[in-house]
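Lab notebook, bench 4. Still working through the backlog of constructs that have no structural model yet. Next entry is a single chain of 312 residues. Request: give me the structure tokens for it.
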Amino acid sequence: MAQEDCSNGIDDDNDQLIDLNDDDCVCEAIITTSPTSLIPNPSFEDNSCLPQGFSSLDCADDWIQASDATSDYFHVDGFMPGDFGAISTVPLPIPEGNAFVGVINEYSFFTNYKEYIGACLTSDLPANTSTTIQFYVGFSNMGFPMYTSAPQIEICIFGSTNCSNLPFEGYDCPSDYSPEWIELACVTVAGSNEWVQTSLTYTSTEDISAIILGPNCPPLNSSSDVFNYYYLDNLIVNQSVFFEDTSNINSQINCDGTLNLGLNISSNFTYQWYNEGVAMVGETNAELSIANPTTGTYQVLLYNNIEYREML
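Model written out:
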């Protein structure tokens, strides 16, 4: 039996169903909410063990304690911030699943103590391409001064061309210890006993194979012996184009009756336009112009070598 070709406007397998109307053409990688993260295990759900105390990031699959400073792993079925005796007010609900991590932004017994988390990417983020990382920052208000968040923090992403540079030695900022790590971008996040979703965008001159996320480098202006403590969850990293709002097709009817359809997308995809699920042969550009439009549903399929999208 012939296999349905999903982009030629022909019923190839003679089942009376053409292109997207045929179950053979279901796109299993349609993006509906957020892009796939090139960080494996982005919300820390996969683990080889449940945390039993602080400094347990090694339990979370694919994550690396980025330096000698000990970042923490939490799970509702294992160790949680309140389990050491303090009154815990971890913001609820947890953004994604049952796990998250915690990092310190300086403890004044040390000159400049900061905790970071690191991961090797599933594929390189290409140079000279806009990249976005979207993530949640949780602000702790635990009833125990040493583990309470300051009202805002500047979070930075650092990148390296080689994953073997994870971890680095020291208790300070990655770029202060090793020229192999470059600061890519920072964002200031503010909150109080809540999870705040934020994002940052950068363009690197080199392919990035590994990332580190954590506090900005400068020492804090504080004389008290406190941990400024924060939670992180659901880190989504990919090319910025995958974060663009492409959920709707823009339409315009001209004075001559021509209908123009298009998308607000800045990257180069391969396109295929459809009318009522049937491919419009030869219509493979980002915009579609229809001289004599008829009532119906128009769709466009976008794809490249990383991901697929279908827009209604």
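Notes after review: Residues 174-177 form the longest helix (4 residues). The chain has one helix and 18 strands. Flag for follow-up if needed.
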